[in-house]
């Protein structure tokens, strides 16, 4: 479970980046040694338990550039990469140019994200208790995302950790962009990639769901409460409650958990 943010002392001065760590990453650009060197450079500054590098685009599913995480089975590829990424606060932030930079998950997630079925199922399966993500545009079509997680045997990130990673962010982003630019360009040029955003509303249309009800389904799945969803849509929480009741009736379900299971069932490839 993602733990709530707790007050911490003011961040101490950030440690200086060791020239040898940076040199090792630069030497490894374009080779299989790049991500191990990048991990070593980051871990010399901040403890991390897993690292995932992705590219996000509006019109297709994410490109997995690198995954370093120990859990088995590989729920990241089984769930996240096949469709659940559409509920990820970092993916959603990547669609907004104002949200670039380094962020802690609890600072960008909706108000009820920690109790959402996506958080409770996916994050519990991968045993992630906290995450800091870096978002950096690679061009006007794609955004690079570096996900740095802490697992259940570690402590949540502190403000000092976040500030240290923000200090590193310009160098990390530049290195990741240079290493990944060719792979991302080839991915963007492919025409057979599955669609990205909008898939939730596509499957709901078969049930006669209205546009407003589909918007609310999106927000509920992402972890918004009725009040938060109402604030996003400019309507009251009580109006959201009415639309949500009508949505559930059309889908013949009675809970957010059932809505989430329907979403996952329709997002994952069949066969």
TrEMBL record:
Residues covered by the HTH luxR-type domain: 202-267
PROSITE patterns assigned: HTH_LUXR_2
BP terms from Gene Ontology: regulation of DNA-templated transcription
SMART domains linked to this entry: HTH_LUXR
The keyword Disulfide bond appears for this protein: no
Keywords of this entry: DNA-binding, Transcription, Transcription regulation
Segment forming the signal sequence: none
InterPro entries in the record: Sig_transdc_resp-reg_C-effctor, Tscrpt_reg_LuxR_C, WH-like_DNA-bd_sf
Name of protein: HTH luxR-type domain-containing protein
Native source species: Tabrizicola oligotrophica
């Amino acid at each position: 479970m993602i733990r709530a943010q707790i007050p911490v002392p003011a961040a101490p001065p950030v440690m200086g980046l060791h020239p040898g760590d940076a040199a090792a990453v630069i030497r490894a650009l374009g080779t299989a040694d790049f991500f191990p060197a990048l991990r070593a450079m980051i871990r010399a500054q901040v403890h991390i338990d897993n690292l995932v590098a992705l590219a996000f685009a509006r019109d297709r599913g994410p490109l997995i550039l690198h995954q370093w995480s120990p859990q088995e089975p590989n729920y990241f590829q089984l769930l996240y990469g096949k469709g659940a990424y559409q509920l990820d606060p970092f993916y959603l932030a990547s669609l907004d140019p104002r949200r670039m930079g380094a962020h802690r998950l609890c600072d960008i997630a909706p108000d009820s994200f920690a109790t959402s079925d996506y958080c409770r199922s996916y994050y519990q399966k991968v045993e992630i208790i906290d995450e800091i993500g870096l978002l950096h545009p690679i061009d006007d079509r794609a955004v690079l995302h570096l996900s740095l997680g802490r697992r259940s045997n570690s402590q949540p990130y502190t403000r000092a950790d976040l500030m240290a990673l923000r200090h590193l962010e310009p160098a990390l982003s530049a290195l990741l962009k240079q290493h990944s630019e060719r792979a991302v360009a080839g991915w963007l040029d492919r025409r057979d990639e599955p669609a990205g955003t909008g898939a939730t509303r596509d499957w709901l249309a078969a049930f006669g769901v209205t546009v407003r009800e589909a918007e609310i389904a999106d927000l509920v799945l992402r972890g918004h409460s009725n009040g938060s969803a109402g604030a996003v849509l400019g309507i009251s929480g009580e109006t959201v409650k009415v639309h949500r009741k009508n949505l559930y009736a059309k889908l013949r379900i009675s809970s957010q958990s059932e809505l989430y299971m329907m979403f996952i069932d329709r997002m994952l490839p069949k066969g």
